[in-house]
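ingest -> validate -> predict -> emit
validate: passed (alphabet ok, no gaps, 345 aa)
predict: started
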Amino acid sequence: MTPVSHDSIVSPPIHAAIAGEALIDLIRRPDGSYLPCLGGALYNLCRALARQGVGTQYLNPLSGDRFGRELAAQLAADGVTLAQPDPVQQVTSLAVVNLTAQGHPDYAFYREGVADRAVSAQSLEAACSRLPALQLVCTGALALDARDTGVYLPWLAAQRTAGRCVVVDANLRPSVMPDLVAYRSAVHAALAHAHIIKASDEDLEHLAVPGADALARAQHLLAANPQAHLLALTLGEEGAWLLHRNGVQCFAREAQSLQVVDTVGAGDSFLAGLLAHLLRQAQVDGGAESFAHVVARLTGDACQQALRHALASASLCVMEQGCVPPGWDAANAWSGLHPASQDPA
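emit:
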């Protein structure tokens, strides 16, 4: 990955291809009205990666409606390229977001006949085949709907076979899935293809992963997916763990309380920070090795540094209204000025 800032005029080669939802979050305001915000976990991840200097392509189509045009314009502004630049006739997905008293989002989705689902495994594979520098692919969240397994599972398998690093963000939305058992099965099927897994403590509960606590569940999930090298476990304000198959376990939590505005996009910014840091490490240390091979042999120090950058990226996001992912320099500066606690007690 070319180590450039978000503000640079240099366009880095495409190292990351992201597939999944792009939608409009209609966020309820105190007066009862709704504020439309560009969103979707994988859409947010695209923006966050590009802002951290990673050459990123969004693989799903966007609508030609007003919301779709706004989604496309923001991606372009952040430096994300579109695999399908021509808009489609289907409408843009919508999510109605009510924030709880703790500032956590509560979602209701409208996703039938929408643009970001007008995609096939073949179109995803074709787009990736046109990216000679591609090192990782990522999906998750709403793309793990059991009704879409015919799209994403063959694509993930093909990307792994092609030697690319597969990243899956569980990011479950069980309240909007009609069949929770099928949904869990689809998520686990996607995780089985992953080199890197990201999951929250709530995700592990929804997946019914056994264990006495979140860390034990994460350890179980990593052990149950022998093809995975790395698992990131997020715990909200309680910090995050990074677990490696080689036995490395790193923890980080902000030492000081944050002024949290809301948590929309925090997990996406965390994952972007983690991947951006790992990609930069791979550029320095990996030589001709694939990114997946570099991830497989990460040291404890490398994991801790990547985790701190990921946490800083999430921390900066939660102090903004909506999803405002930080750039590399901002996250790097935050982690330098605000040392994190590495004690999970």
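The chain has eleven helices and 14 strands.
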